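Morning F.,

Quick status update on the modeling queue. The single chain you submitted on Monday has been processed. Sequence for confirmation:
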Amino acid sequence: MDWSDVVLLLLVVAIFVLYIRLMLKNKRLRQMADESECLRREAEATEQRNRQLKQEMTSNISHELKTPVSSIRGYLEILLSDKPVDDERRRFFLNRCYRQTLRLSDLIQDVSVINKLEESSDLFPRTDVDACIVADEALADLVDKADAAGITMHNNLPSLPMQGNHELIYCIFRNLMENSVSYAGEGIDIVLESYKESADHYFIHYYDTGKGVADEYLSRLFDRFVRIDSGRSRQNGGTGLGLSIVKHAVLFHGGEIYAKNRTAGGLEFFFSLKKQ
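Structure tokens below.
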């Protein structure tokens, strides 16, 4: 080969290398474009799901508000009418109005908590708390109602020091206990215990010895406004948001939660809370 052939060969090799590099670069650009498109579609899908959830929640809230607002309006219209109302009926109507305002207050508070957890979780400060002590506080607030139903509550948790939000940890224990007291039946036991501990998490077992729930409802227990027995839930003042708040509060503390029916009867929850 003379020098012209060598130069030509090198030129061909250089062009070939350049072509390969351009091909690889174009392939990488296509991959990046595909990844960007996937991310865009995922973001749009997430935004659409969030929009649907907000629409559903708005619709559910409107539905939940109708009954107490209509009741209060009806009772007040009777009291403000020209027709005479004796003292006994007046007291009855005022008592009903008061109960419905309590229900409205609970609903507003629960909706506010969920919205803050979903959109502004940084508004919940973390401090040094002991989950066992917080559970005792929730138990003490419900002991009168539990005693009236012949329910015995046992807090067998050891000391569980952690960095968390007192309000949300209280909501976890309060809502679980209140659900059992209100819906699990009379003469049952409610038990809180720790079944495992890792370097980062506490693992907690909560259960009652009541009647449990139908299996088809287990996967929906933590959904908003889900009521196993809507009549009893409204009668007892439930908002249908308690277990949804429990799930969000557990997630806020870096944990997970699931529920199942106990073999021996009743409903049980297994959840974890991150120590830091």
